[in-house]
Amino acid sequence: MADDFELDTGDLQRRxxxxxxxxxxxxxxxxxxxxxxxxLDPVMVDAYGSPTPINxxxxxxxxxxxxxxxxxxxxxxxxxxxxxxxESGLGINPQLNGTIIMLPIPELNEERRRELTKxxxxxxxxxxxxxxxxxxxxxxxxxxxxADGMSEDDQKFWEAEVQELTxxxxxxVDSSLETKQSEIMQV
Length: 187
Fold this sequence. Notes:
Layout: H1 9-28, E1 44-47, E2 50-53, E3 58-64, E4 67-72, H2 78-86, E5 95-97, E6 100-104, H3 110-147, H4 152-185
GO cellular component, one term: cytosol
Subcellular location: Cytoplasm
Organism: Wenxinia saemankumensis
């Protein structure tokens, strides 16, 4: 029977925390008016025939609060790195200085700040959906065990466990979103 059913809440929690980690990575790529090397993480350069992250073709530095520099190791890739940054949608105009690409970070205007808060909201909603999907997976396991003979008390216990785990992670997503939105709107 299913009396020995044990839902792997550790696995569910690990996967939900993976969704949170992904959200934090996406939030790090959002520009807030301050320079950050992580804002270049999603930008890929066509290096040697395959898409490569910028931090694998050069050294990314933040020498000033409003400047990011990339010291490209291979002179032949400087143009490709510059092109990748221009086409990335970050809204940054790269300036070349030999093998060093300088990225001055402009002030964000009010309209752009509002757009970025909407993008942050979209990222958070995707994380919530991922967490809810994991909740559904857990509930499906419980329903299957119920069909295999689990008691109703055990079913209610495990459903409450999964729901509590879900609620806790959704709150973390919401608080991360609030923090990021206030950071974006800060002048």
